[in-house]
Every structure is written in C-alpha cells, then in structure tokens.
Structure to design on (274 residues):
C-alpha cells in the first residue's frame, strides 16, 4: 500500500481508503438494532485493514461506527486514520459536542482523526460550528477538521472560521464519470494543501462495468475498478473511499494502492471521459 501526505497534517494515509455507507435499508435496520449482514461488513473492513488501508470513513448517520469499532479492535490506534461526520442538524455548538462524544463512544476510541461537517447548513453560522471544532481540537480529542459537500465558497468560509486550525479536507463526489470537482475545488485543494476525499469513486458501482476502461486495464494487468481508483489516487490531494461491504472487492480495491498509472494511461482516461 502506498501512503500519501494528508494535507498539512504531517500524517501519511493510505492512498486508497474505505467508505462505510451501505444503503438506506441497512441504516433503517440498524436503527432498529438489527445487525443482519453486519458480519460480512466487519470482515470487509478487516480485510482492508489487513492490506494496509488506514483511512476509514464513516458518519453518525451511516450507523456503521460500531462496525468500524469492531473491525479495529486489537489494532494499533496510531496506525489508523478514522474519519467520521456530523449531520447538518447537529451543527450548533452543544449539539456538535454531543454528537462528537457519541461518535467517540460508538467508535470505541479516545480521539478522532478527522471530523467532517457532512453537509452545510445555512441556518447555523459557520463560525459557531468551526469554533466547536476548535474546542475539540484544543481538548486533544480531535486531530483534524474537514467538511463534505461544500462548494468552493463554503470551503473558503470554513477556512476563515478556523483561526486556530487548518481545514484539512473536503469530501465530494468525484470519479472518472463525475468530474465537477475539477472545475474549481480540486485546483484549490492542490494550492491550499487540502485533501480531497473522493466519494462514489467507482461511480456508485458503474465503473467496474465500464468497457471504456478495458484498454488500460489489459495493458496494466489491473481490473477496471483498480484503474478507476488509481486514476484518482494518482492525484496528490485525492483519496478515494470506495465502499467496503464485500471482502473480495475491498481487497481488489486496496490493490489499487500498490502502484500508479503511467502519465500516458492517465491522459488516455482523461480524454476518454471528458
Ligand atoms: N459525504 C457524503 O455525502 C457521501 C455520500 C455518499 C457516499 N459517501 C461515502 O463514499 C463511499 C462510497 O460510496 P458508494 O459506495 O456509494 O460508491 P462506490 O464506492 O463508487 O461504489 C460502490 C459500488 O461499487 C461496487 N464495487 C465496489 N468495489 C467493486 C469492485 N472491485 N468490483 C465491482 N464492484 C465493486 C459495490 O458493490 P459491493 O458493495 O458489493 O462491494 C457497490 O455496489 C460510501 O461508503 C461513503 O463512505 C459519502
């Protein structure tokens, strides 16, 4: 597994991460404390950790924090980079602090590496949310602050609302078939040294079936999924977080972190999907 600098954090994080949002049905079942299918999901996360994946993304809304806790049991905490998120109805100070404590408990850890605002909420002043984040950083419970589904203007506002900390990451939909991030966010992240966590990196499951990847796939001996992930992970700021629900897929996807696409292969894909 290749490890890359994660923004200005001084941490090196696996070039490929794991996402742990499953589907609305699973979230609803988890609300009712049903755990059907959770064993395979834990096996999947564990399989990823075995290959050296250190970045695991979850959220209070996903109901997968307990699965992450189960998967990391017995592992060295400082070799992991745990990212979770606060839902937009919890962005006032007291709500955010309570959400954070609940996430800590569910993850079974004493600190979180990256706490992200899941979606912006225009009804809550950004300064209040970010001041609460800085309180957590000051208390040593939170290492780094991130946001998700923010546009460039909102990212700038978040940065300006963090006088004592850096904004370390922004998480958005980004893949070969969804490239809006390239318009302004990605160049900004590159310039500012902000990590870009790419969700739906496999186009929400479309890319592993996309024949346009075949020429690069057969030239490199990589699967289509690996090619699609390497295209993302080859960009210095970008960390793809494909969903981890099936061990075979997780191991295959983690394999993308073992190498890089050549410049020519990357350019061919750029052109094909533009
Ligand atoms: N911040 C946000 O608002 C937000 C929104 C959406 C998602 N996310 C994050 O992004 C993560 C990924 O999103 P996603 O799961 O919807 O999209 P994705 O990773 O692009 O695609 C997942 C789909 O691809 C399949 N797949 C994965 N690896 C494969 C492989 N090697 N070969 C063939 N098929 C493969 C999966 O099947 P299997 O499940 O059977 O492996 C699943 O159907 C989520 O888990 C979550 O952490 C964040």
């Amino acid at each position: 597994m290749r490890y890359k600098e994660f923004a200005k954090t001084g941490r090196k994080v696996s070039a490929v991460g794991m996402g742990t949002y499953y589907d609305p049905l699973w979230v609803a079942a988890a609300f009712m404390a049903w755990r059907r299918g959770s064993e395979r999901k834990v096996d999947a996360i564990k399989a990823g950790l075995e290959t050296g994946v250190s970045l695991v993304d979850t959220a209070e809304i996903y109901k997968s924090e307990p699965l992450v806790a189960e998967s990391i049991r017995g592992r060295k905490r400082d070799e992991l980079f745990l990212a979770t998120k606060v839902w937009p109805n919890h962005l006032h100070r007291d709500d955010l602090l309570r959400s954070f404590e609940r996430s800590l408990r569910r993850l079974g850890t004493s600190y979180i590496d990256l706490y992200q605002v899941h979606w912006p909420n225009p009804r809550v002043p950004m300064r209040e949310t970010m001041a609460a984040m800085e309180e957590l950083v000051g208390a040593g419970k939170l290492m780094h602050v991130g946001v998700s589904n923010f546009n460039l203007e909102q990212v700038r506002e978040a940065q300006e609302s963090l006088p004592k900390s850096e904004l370390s990451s922004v998480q958005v939909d980004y893949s070969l078939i969804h490239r809006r991030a390239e318009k302004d966010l990605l160049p900004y992240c590159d310039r500012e040294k902000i990590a870009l966590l790419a969700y739906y990196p496999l186009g929400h499951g479309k890319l592993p079936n996309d024949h346009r990847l075949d020429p690069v796939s057969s030239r490199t001996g990589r699967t289509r999924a690996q090619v699609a992930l390497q295209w993302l992970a080859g960009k210095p700021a970008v960390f793809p977080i494909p969903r981890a629900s099936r061990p075979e897929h997780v191991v295959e996807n983690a394999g993308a972190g073992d190498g890089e696409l050549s410049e020519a292969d990357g350019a061919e894909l750029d052109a094909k999907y533009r």
User: Anything to note?
Assistant: The longest helix spans residues 93-107. Residues 3-273 form a domain with the TIM Barrel fold (CATH 3.20.20.100).
